[in-house]
Amino acid sequence: MGNGQVLDDQRKDWVAIGSLTFSWLATQNFSLKLQLDAHTAFYDSALTELGRNSVQLVLGGAVRPGKNWTLDLAVGEDIVVDTASDVVFHIGINGRQW
User: Fold this and answer.
1) What is the pLDDT of residues 25-81, one digit of tens each?
2) Structural domain contains residue 1
3) Displacement of CA 58 from its chain's centroid (Å)
4) pTM above 0.85?
5) Residue 69 CB: number of other CB atoms within 10 A?
6) 44 φ, ψ (degrees, to nearest 5)
7) Does 10 reside within a domain?
8) What is the pLDDT of residue 4?
9) How buried is 45 (Cβ within 10 angstroms: 0-12 exposed, 13-18 middle, 19+ buried)?
10) 54 and which of 64, 65, 83, 87 could share a cystine (Cβ 3.0–4.6 Å)?
11) What per-residue string of b and e applies to 47-56 under the rule 16 or more CB within 10 Å gives b?
């Protein structure tokens, strides 16, 4: 963690961050995905939003409507409540081989 001017006296010196992703190719043109993202607290604070560890669950999938591009759709939820955005929607378009 670098130096900062906002809440610098409460900022932790280090934060552990991890991510785990599972993907299942259901068909040649469709895959399902599950992802867990987590990090330890960034600040020493009694506020849940700042002082607790966080875990988010992302569920989604990808569809290949054309030969060289995919459409990714996902929704994310904070499973450790109030430590991240309540719900996040993801839409991505990729122009690449599957």
Assistant:
1) 999 999 999 999 999 999 999 999 889 999 999 999 999 988 889 999 999 999 999
2) no
3) 6
4) no
5) 13
6) -85, 100
7) no
8) 72
9) middle
10) 83
11) eeeeebebbb
Q: Which residues, listed in sequence order, are joined to residue 34 by a DSSP beta bridge?
A: 22, 59
CA distance 15 to 6: 17
Structural domain range at position 90: 17-95
Residue written as tokens 């002082």? 51
Whose tokens are 């409507």? That residue is 65
What is the token pair recorded at 45? 């604070």
| Residues 45 and 51 sit within 8 Å (Cβ to Cβ) | yes
* CB-count exposure of residue 92 (10 Å: 0-12, 13-18, 19+): exposed
22 by DSSP, 3-state: which? Answer: strand
Q: In this structure, is residue 91 part of a structural domain?
A: yes
Nearest to 94 by CA among 76, 73, 69, 74: 69
Does residue 6 fall inside a structural domain? no
Q: Scan for tokens 């599950």, then name that residue.
A: 34
At residue 9, does pLDDT exceed 60? yes
Tokens of 12: 């932790």
